[in-house]
Amino acid sequence: MRHFLLLSSLLFLAGCTAAPYFQAPAPALNANQEISYQLFTNESIKTASHMQVHLDEAKDIAYVQSFGGGGVAVGVAFGPLGVLANIGMIQAETDADLEQLYGKLPLPVADMFSQAATKQAMQHNANSEVRFHPFVLVVRDEDEMLRMGTALIVEVAQADGSVWGGRYTHQTSLHLPLADIADGMNDTEHTTVHGALEQSFEEILALYLNDRMGNYIESDHVVISSTFLSPRFKLEVNGKVLERHSDRVTLRSGAGLISLPLDDSLTMKNATVKKPKASSKS
């Protein structure tokens, strides 16, 4: 079975269960522990599907789009054949986007991440117990605008032989017309995109470090709907607020720690907590 990077599938599980799951905090750093990392490859991020392709040869820029099919109703009405039709239509639109966008974001992703790690005083060490897979995430919305951010898959080896796994996602405030990127970025656009994504890598590493240092205190339980995380079906996702500023919110969710701009791509409301039913007496 092909694996694919569609955040909404993970977020659906995180947001729609009776008892929401939230990613556990990363293992705590002790005072004498070196802040280091090594790189690894998470194969699911490198694998293409009808909803995920890559815009560069290194497969460091993942592109996600889910438009083109008839929606959930087609699958319900026509069963397996409807689902297959949906996949085929979405695949056709994804392929068309890929033809327009491939190579149009000439970003040295590996170098950008390395520089961001250096700024966060993190050292590359081939023997580190921490493994990172960083990548850029480009998501198309219904208006054919491209929302951009970064993501980081993390594995931390434990003394007992187990491995803690987690994910961190940071959405930038960039939202650029697909057609503009397809036409090729000018120097100003390239500088803007490069700078925003390099800063995003710095911010995502700060999320990781704050998580490991125990700097976050969970506050409000909220439900969000995000174009970046679920561009087509507007799924609701449970989250615990870790930080909130005038222009950004950071949440702990079932799909990891997520930092999102407070703009038109996000709606957020307080979660309604269901009270347990009172037991009946015989």
Oligomerization status of the protein chains: single chain
Helix content: 25-40%
Number of domains: 1
Reported for the largest beta sheet, the result is: 12 strands, mixed
Number of strands: 12
End-to-end CA span: 50 Å
CA gyration radius, whole angstroms: 20 Å
What order do the SSEs take from the amino end to the carboxyl end, as H and E?
Answer: HEHEEHHEEEEHHEEEEE
Helix count, per DSSP?
6
- Give the DSSP E fraction (strand runs of 2 or more residues): 25-35%
Structural class: alpha/beta
Integer average pLDDT: 86
Given as residue ranges, the uncertain stretches (5+ residues, pLDDT < 50) are 1-17, 72-85
Shape category: globular
Could you characterize the architecture of this molecule?
The chain is an alpha/beta fold and 282 residues long. It has one domain. Helices cover 30% and strands 29% of the residues. The chain contains 6 helices and 12 strands. Strands 1, 2, 3, 4, 5, 6, 7, 8, 9, 10, 11 and 12 form a 12-stranded mixed beta sheet that branches. A hairpin with a 6-residue loop joins strand 2 and strand 3 (61-64). Helix 4 packs across helix 6. The longest helix is centred in the N-terminal third of the chain and has 30 residues, at 72-101. The termini are far apart.
